[in-house]
Amino acid sequence: MRSTFLYSLNHDLTPELRVIGVIMFGAWALAYYQILRAGFRDKTYGLPLACIFLDISWEYMFAFNRVAPLETSISWGNRLWFVADCVIVAQVFMYGRNAQSHPWVKANFYAIAVIGLAASFVGLYLFETYFLDIYGVASSFMINFVLSLLFIQLLLSRPDLNGLAYGAAWTKMIGSVAGAAFCYLWWPMQFKAGVLIRPPYLHEPPNYYFLYFLYGSIFVVDLTYIYLYRQRLMALRAART
Question: Which of 90, 134, 160, 169 is exposed most, by the fewest CB atoms within 10 A?
């Protein structure tokens, strides 16, 4: 399959990869829009709190090349996500305190949020540099996997579906599938003879099984979340009739 997606130094993305990238960024942008709209409507935040902090940290690093330079169109796509996450973080500080049920967490929410945000950035940056995940491929899917899992916990903690958008569940899944297809093709093409084709000339991983596990697991968990959301939505509608 790689032979149809030949890499060149002057054209980091083939036309086929650009199409997949547009689907990926477009679906995620639509998911962000629906999450933001639901958050403002219900005066809350629509993502798991830990993932909000990890997301904005990752997107800042890879939107502004704080770890390693990326192809320009990929960087601009990350900047689109970064702007959306800035608004979600604003929702956290606007509405997050009132969304907490534990008295201690509610009383100390702003300090917890600031420390959590700072720790997420520092920890993620140290992860990227220690493990030399210079393009953020592994970390992005690790965060996405945790996001998918915590979405189920968030759903169970909000039986009224407050701040949760059903359409975002679908577009998040579509964006994740497109992202998996993109990285499945693009990431191995960054190596030639087992070495990264540009500095810092890292060695190619011995295999991609860990990424394959994340690609498949995210899809399965996203489908589970959609099913559980649908079941809860139907129960709420039945209760109103």
Answer: 160
